[in-house]
Structure to design on (681 residues):
């Protein structure tokens, strides 16, 4: 029995999960610490144009002679900020709305549901274009719009989870013991719906990072001298074809960064989901 | 029926000081198909102070609904509730949700059937109890923690300082039920509703939990409503037993009387269904199945399954009677031990022996009658292959 348990424990996460976590840790720490570690300035131009990877420039340089290694790291600051911040905002707003709607199930449920349907039905790209052309390419607006678009996802998951948790006896038991609605909501329902919502959040972050990439490709991400992964790719793609064939690393590095990061995030999300599913099955 | 007096206020006991009076309580469920199902019909019940009242009945007899109604857990548009539930002079059906919340936990508390699902799986058991204390009592956090240790000790949890930090899944079934009892007792309620507290436990634990409830009841001088489908469990500790059937209370008496002199045929059938170790007779079951709430007729809900049922039983719902002993009340026209019962059972035996079909006393549009007619039709078809021969019969002819 104990052997079986141990086996189960060791199989809880695959090595891939730890690898994904490691990658995420590296990328987040390096992005956070970028100004403090000894890096070349991301905007500093040098005479070495479109240089291939070397010991002086680990990832090579772009067409203006800027160090790509430093640009990818600095670009991660923007991309990761957009990914995590917008999803965090969407999670808090959407999650709270879903909890309240699922718990009260009155008029407020209808209103929130209609709101979420409206957001889903609204073409996302048009909203992004509209807001960013009107308000300008500010990081805060990009984060805000992606957060807004992610609200329905968290609303639906949190509402559905609340509906199922609400049926459980311990909610009734808390009611019988005279607990207030707020208390039931935050100390009994919230901790129980957190696992499914959080595992979706990881997948949401990767979607948000890709959304930033799409915006950048349309020239609507943060203003150009500032690096973001999307900006780097779109800038690289605008090079002449002979330049690109001479130095494809210009687009490979930021693409790799996006691919590995979103892959890791998705992998972590799915692994967590499996873990929580298994746990709820056992309960 | 000369010796029998009809009581106006049904099941109102002569008990000097009932803690909870239920008067003419009826609960109906509105189904999505716009049907109205009577779950509880005209319940009149006094819960004696500092005593244990057992409530027995089959699944679907309305036991749990009774407990839920007392605590106001079924307040929604889907329920139609009428009558009164008076607790300490307050009608619990009329007060606001906020006032009700103050009473819940601190005055009336409840234990649930499944201790695993009744505890929050992601919260330490100690914290759950502490939170309940902090909801109602004006004490500091450390005092509440101290009280929690005391409670855990009193319900028989060993090493409470350690168990305080455990999660529900780390505890055994019996310990979880003890935690649940501690949780229910946390704010010193004067009344405890125990809804099948021993159903999920094995036999040895069952006894321990029942004894724990009995001990706490004496120590705290509480009133307890012990709900169970198991007469044997209830008989161990309860002072009174109320038997429910089809949303009605059909018999109420002190525990001993119920066991020695049941009046209602249903109660006696329940008693016969308890296995006895030193008897050679086959264990009896009650024929038929619990009533479908949609098909409840005007008469006695048990009539279709009753051995002594007479046409009158189908037509009129028997009021509450009592004879020599006023504490023993029952709702039956033909109580066991009376002359009427002997006559009725003789009539039914005679009918059975001579294969006289029971003339249906119901009006033609009633559900039961329709079913009977259909049964008659199908049996005619089966007996008479000329009408509509089925393929099986064609084959058998060859």
């Amino acid at each position: 029995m104990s052997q079986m348990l141990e086996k189960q424990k060791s199989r809880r996460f695959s090595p891939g999960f730890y690898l994904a976590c490691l990658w995420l840790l590296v990328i987040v720490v390096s992005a956070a610490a970028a100004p403090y570690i000894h890096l070349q300035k991301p905007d500093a131009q040098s005479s070495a144009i479109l240089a291939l990877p070397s010991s002086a420039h680990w990832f090579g340089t772009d067409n203006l002679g800027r160090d790509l290694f430093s640009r990818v790291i600095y670009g991660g600051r923007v991309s990761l900020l957009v990914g995590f911040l917008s999803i965090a905002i969407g999670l808090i707003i959407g999650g709270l709305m879903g909890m309240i709607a699922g718990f009260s199930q009155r008029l407020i449920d209808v209103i929130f549901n209609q709101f979420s349907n409206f957001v889903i039905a609204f073409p996302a790209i048009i909203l992004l274009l509209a807001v960013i052309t009107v308000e300008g390419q500010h990081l805060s607006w990009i984060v805000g719009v992606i957060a807004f678009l992610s609200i329905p996802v968290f609303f639906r998951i949190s509402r559905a989870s609340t509906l199922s948790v609400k049926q459980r006896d311990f909610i009734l038991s808390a009611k019988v013991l005279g607990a207030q609605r707020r208390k039931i909501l935050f100390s009994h329902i919230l901790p129980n719906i957190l696992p499914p919502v959080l595992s979706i959040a990881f997948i949401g972050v990767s979607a948000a990072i890709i959304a930033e990439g799409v915006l950048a490709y349309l020239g609507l991400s943060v203003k150009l001298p500032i690096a973001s992964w999307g900006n780097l790719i779109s800038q690289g793609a605008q090079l002449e074809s002979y330049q690109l064939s001479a130095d494809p690393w210009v687009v490979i590095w930021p693409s790799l960064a996006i691919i590995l990061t979103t892959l890791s995030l998705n992998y972590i999300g799915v692994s967590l989901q499996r873990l929580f599913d298994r746990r709820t099955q056992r309960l | 029926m000369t010796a029998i007096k009809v009581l106006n206020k049904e099941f109102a006991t002569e008990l000097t000081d009932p803690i909870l009076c239920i008067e003419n309580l009826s609960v109906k469920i509105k189904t999505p198909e716009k049907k109205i199902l009577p779950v509880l019909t005209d319940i009149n019940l006094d819960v004696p102070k500092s005593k244990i009242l057992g409530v027995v009945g089959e699944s679907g007899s309305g036991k749990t609904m009774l407990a839920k109604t007392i605590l106001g857990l079924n307040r929604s548009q889907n329920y139609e509730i009428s009558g009164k539930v008076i607790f300490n002079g307050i009608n619990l059906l009329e007060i606001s949700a906020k006032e009700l919340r103050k009473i819940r936990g601190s005055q009336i508390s409840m234990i649930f059937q499944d201790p695993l699902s009744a505890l929050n799986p992601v919260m330490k058991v100690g914290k759950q109890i502490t939170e309940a204390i902090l909801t109602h009592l004006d004490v500091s956090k450390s005092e509440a923690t101290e009280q929690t240790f005391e409670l855990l000790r009193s319900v028989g949890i060993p090493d409470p300082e350690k168990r305080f930090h455990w999660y529900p899944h780390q505890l055994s079934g019996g310990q979880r039920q003890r935690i649940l009892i501690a949780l229910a007792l946390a704010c010193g309620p004067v009344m405890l509703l125990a809804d099948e507290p021993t159903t999920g436990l094995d036999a040895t634990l069952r006894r321990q939990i029942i004894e724990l409830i009995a001990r706490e009841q004496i120590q705290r001088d509480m009133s307890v409503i012990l709900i169970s489908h198991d007469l044997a469990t209830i008989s161990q500790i309860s002072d009174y037993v109320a038997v429910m059937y089809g949303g009605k209370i059909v018999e109420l008496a002190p525990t001993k009387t119920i066991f020695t002199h049941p009046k209602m045929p249903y109660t006696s059938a329940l008693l016969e269904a308890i296995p006895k170790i030193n008897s050679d007779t086959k264990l009896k079951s009650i024929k038929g199945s619990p009533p479908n709430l949609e098909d409840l007729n005007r008469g006695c809900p048990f009539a279709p399954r009753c051995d002594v049922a007479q046409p009158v039983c189908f037509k009129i719902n028997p009021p509450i009677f009592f004879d020599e002993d006023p504490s023993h009340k029952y709702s039956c026209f033909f109580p066991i031990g009376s002359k009427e019962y002997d006559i009725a059972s003789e009539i039914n035996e005679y009918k059975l022996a001579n294969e006289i079909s029971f003339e249906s006393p119901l009006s033609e549009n009633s559900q039961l009658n329709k079913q009977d007619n259909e049964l008659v039709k199908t049996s005619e078809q089966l007996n008479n292959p000329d009408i509509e021969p089925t393929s099986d019969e064609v084959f058998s002819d060859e």
User: Anything to note?
Assistant: Residues 203-220 of chain B form the longest helix (18 residues). The interface with chain A takes residues 71, 73, 101-106, 109-110, 112-114, 116-123, 131-132, 135-136, 169, 180, 183-184, 186-187 of chain B (CB under 8 Å).
